[in-house]
């Protein structure tokens, strides 16, 4: 896997992936940016959220659960001093579907956190990461 970051101007950068996709990252005005894109640390959180959501949906589908939606809300705290690393990250999974089994959703979240999500497992070495989940039963 490869990626390339290109400086565009001021505090704005374009990240390009080896799969052919690009994202814009920019800083806030007080740091020379123009707020044209997500902050780099925000993209780190989005990447982790996408990785674990992918796992949870895949595990639940394999478990023959009917899923209508899966949202991961991430709340992260950072150190106040440089380097402003993440000190705690909480992921809340909100999974909705028809006749979803609570135990299967719980197990999918646990499997992602403990075995499958490379991003979560990598960050867990340096950051306290916690999880919660909510099952929303859809009505037919």
Name the CATH superfamily classification of the largest domain: K homology (KH) domain
Secondary structure tally, helices: 3
- The general outline is elongated
Strand content: 35-45%
- How many separate structural domains? 2
**Helix share, percent:** 25-40%
CATH architecture of the largest domain: 2-Layer Sandwich
What structural class do the secondary elements suggest? alpha+beta
N-to-C series of helices and strands: EEEHEEHHE
Rounded mean pLDDT is 97
Low-confidence stretches: none
The total beta strand count reads 6
Q: So what's the oligomer here?
A: single chain
CATH class of the largest domain: Alpha Beta
> What Rg is obtained from the alpha carbons, in whole angstroms?
17 Å
Provide the spatial order of strands within the biggest beta sheet. 1-2-3
Largest sheet: 3 strands, antiparallel
Q: Between the first and last Cα atoms, what is the distance in angstroms?
A: 42 Å
**And the CATH topology of the largest domain?**
GMP Synthetase, Chain A, domain 3
Structure notes:
With 140 residues, the chain is α+β, with helices and mostly antiparallel strands. The protein folds into two domains: 1-38, N-terminal domain of TfIIb (Single Sheet); 40-137, GMP Synthetase, Chain A, domain 3 (2-Layer Sandwich). The chain has three helices and six strands, in the order βββαββααβ. It has helices at residues 40-62, 102-116, 118-124; strands spanning 3-9, 12-17, 22-26, 66-78, 86-98, 128-137. The strands form two sheets. A three-stranded antiparallel sheet has the order 1-2-3, with no helix packed on it. The chain has a three-stranded mixed sheet with strand order 4-5-6, with helices on one face. A hairpin with a 4-residue loop joins strand 2 (12-17) and strand 3 (22-26). The mean pLDDT is 97.
